[in-house]
Each structure stands twice: as structure tokens, then as C-alpha cells.
Amino acid sequence: MPGSLEPLDLGVQIPYHFRCPISLELMRDPVIVGTGQTYDRPSIESWVATGNTTCPVTRLPLTDFTLIPNHTLRRLIQEWCVANRSYGVERIPTPKQPADPVMVRSLLSQAASESNSSHARLSALRRLRGLARDSDKNRSVISTHNAREVLLGVLFSETNSNSSELNLESLAILSSFPLSESECLLVSSDPDRISYLISLLSHSSIDVRVNAASLLENVVAGTRSPENRAEISNHDEVFDRIVGILNYPLSYPRAMKVGIKALFALCLVKQHRHKAVEAGAVEALINRLADFEKCDAERALATVELLCRIPQGCAAFASHALTVPLLVKIILKISDRATEYAAGALLSLCSAAERLQREAVAAGVLTQLLLLVQSDCTERAKRKAQMLLKLLRDSWPEKSIRNSDDFACSDVVPY
């Protein structure tokens, strides 16, 4: 029983009719199905999601999958919890009810109608945003009612005014949803829409900037047209503003996550990677690398490897004193992918300058690479490690090679 002691330890038993017939646990959000039976909402939703079409207790077919909250039973369960709090039982909170499809359609209709007052439309959008923020299920309900089409229409209805509350509220909701390929094309093929989104990247509110970056990344990643992606990444100041989000001085995890996703998506366009370097992406990546969570760190290292493949990026990383020691330290520390990207970046850097080869060896890269080629890491990571070991052969300390048992067991041999 969540939030309480075990029944056998506290001497109080959960009443039978308070238990879910599926999970046998105390119900926290009891709902009634078409056969009249009551179940805990997560349990019956999981039952139906796995393909079951009958009532678990009666075995009668469920022709209607509508779930009706059993408010009376929930109140009785809450009262029982309060009455037994001396035994350590905690009162279950009143659950938030999932979005009603009829209400969602009504809110979208209100938001889309230009005949309604701005206040009414804004109120509808704010209610939609609250529903979307509550749960994945609500977002799924909203998404099935052409919400993205409506919200895109509202967002780009007044592109001459980046302070319109209607626009910004629509943007905030859209940033919670992935766009379809056709929706990405609808945005990416319209220069005015892209210019508007990029203008929002310099908004006074960090939330607006992050929402705009999130939608822009969604569009770039979801657009198949190389020409459209190149046009977006060639836009004036887009890299400066994305790097600015990464460099936001206060602790804001979402800014970090969205910023690196957007930067990576833009850097996939090879011909404009130099713009990222000119915008200060190299320093931002190195300075922020230790702050990223695992998946974001992988994306950041992938971006580092991409930028190391162009002369400007390689030179910029080479000039940063922390680049080589940091990349060496990362090998085998975060994940297989992170190791692969770090090894790839080191390969590019060490191929460009002998000075960096000596720096890598001094940072302990030899031991890291020898461990890597014998690990369960990806084959691509191992190949990069072997190429790097070959490249560094002239910089290996003789004593290290002679005394290394790891080296004797590895697939790499000195030349």
C-alpha cells in the first residue's frame, strides 16, 4: 500500500471492497466500467491497453471503454485512510481527472475562432496548456483532435507581433507535442514563419526562448528537405541565440536539454557548422559538458564530433585547454555512445596536431583506449580507438608499452 506501513505490521487490514480486483492494492483512483464493476484506473487502463476486451471480474464484453470516476468510493477510501492514520496510513490525494474529449474539442474550437474575444481565446488556450501539462494521457487526447493544426494556425496568425499572448500561449502548448512530417514542412517551407520563430529566440522571457527553440528543433529534425534545413541553419543569428540558451546563467535544466537538441539538429547541416563555431558553440559545449544528463551528454558529444570535422571547429576545440583532458576522461564513463563520440572527436583533433597527441597521451588516453578495445563497447567505438592508437604510436612512452599487460592482450599492435 503506497505511502503506508505493511498491513501485517500495523494490524489493520484494507477492506476488501477498497482493493482493486486486478492489482489487489488499495485503489487510488477508482473508476466504473460498463459492466458496473469498479477498478483502479491505472490497472484497468493497462488491462485494456494489452488487448483485453472483457471485464476482468464478470468476463462480459466491454463494448464501451468509457471510465466513470467512482467519487463515492474514493471519498470512503480517503476517510478510511484518515481514520487509520495513527497506524501510518497516508491519505490518498484526490486524482486529477483525464481530459474529457468533448471539452478538448470545445476548447480548441474556442481558441481557433477569430470571432471570439482575445480574452476568451486566451482562456481556452491556458486551459489546454494546463491539461497538457498534467499528463501524457491528456496530451494524447489533445493530440487526437487536430490540436497541432489549430495551434499552428494561432501561433502564426500575427507574426508581426512577437508579444501577442495568443501566439506565445500556442507556442507553449506546441512545444509539448512532436510535429508530423507534413506539419514540419508547413513551417520549414515558409520563410516568414521561420523568421518569426527565430525572432522569438531573443524574447525577453527565457521560457519563450526555450519554447521557440524546442519547436524549431522539432521542425529541423522532422524536415526531410535538405534545402529547407539548410535555409533554417543559414538564418542570421540562429546559432547565436541557441548558444545563448545553452549559456543561460541560472540553473534551468530544460534550457540545457532543449538548447543542445536544437544545436545538434542545426549542426547536422554540414555547410553551416562554421556558423556554430563563430557563435561560440565550442566554448559553450566544453563549459557545459559536465552539467548535461546522460542522453543530453551523448548529444553534446555528438555535436562536438561533428564540429571537430571542420577546420574551424577543430581549431577552436584545440585552443581550449580543457578539450582533450575532458574527452579522455569521458571514455568509458558515461555510455557506449558517449565513448564513441569522444573517441571520434579525439581522433579528429589528434589527426590535426601533434601537440594534441602529446596532450592526449599525457592525459592518460593510452590506458583508456586499451581498455576500450577490450570492452563490450560498440564496434564503431573500438575501430575509432584502434585508429587513434595507431595515430599515437610515435607519442607512446616506451615504458608504458613495455610494461602494459593490457596492451599485450589487445588487438592493437605497435608499428
Automatic annotation (TrEMBL):
Q: Which domain of life is it from?
A: Eukaryota
PROSITE patterns from the UniProt entry: U_BOX
Q: Where is the signal peptide?
A: none
Q: Which UniProt keywords apply?
A: Transferase, Ubl conjugation pathway
InterPro entries registered for this protein in UniProt: ARM-like, ARM-type_fold, ARM_PUB, PUB22/23/24-like, RING-Ubox_PUB, Ubox_domain, Znf_RING/FYVE/PHD
The residue ranges of the U-box domain are 13-87
**An example of a Gene Ontology BP annotation on this entry?**
protein ubiquitination
The UniProt catalytic activity note for this protein reads:
S-ubiquitinyl-[E2 ubiquitin-conjugating enzyme]-L-cysteine + [acceptor protein]-L-lysine = [E2 ubiquitin-conjugating enzyme]-L-cysteine + N(6)-ubiquitinyl-[acceptor protein]-L-lysine
What Enzyme Commission number does this protein have?
A: 2.3.2.27
Pathway involvement of the protein, from the record: Protein modification; protein ubiquitination
Q: Which GO terms describe its molecular function?
A: ubiquitin protein ligase activity
Q: Which CDD domains match?
A: RING-Ubox_PUB
Q: What the protein does?
A: Functions as an E3 ubiquitin ligase.
User: What name is this protein filed under?
Assistant: U-box domain-containing protein
What is the native source organism of this protein?
Lactuca saligna (Willowleaf lettuce)
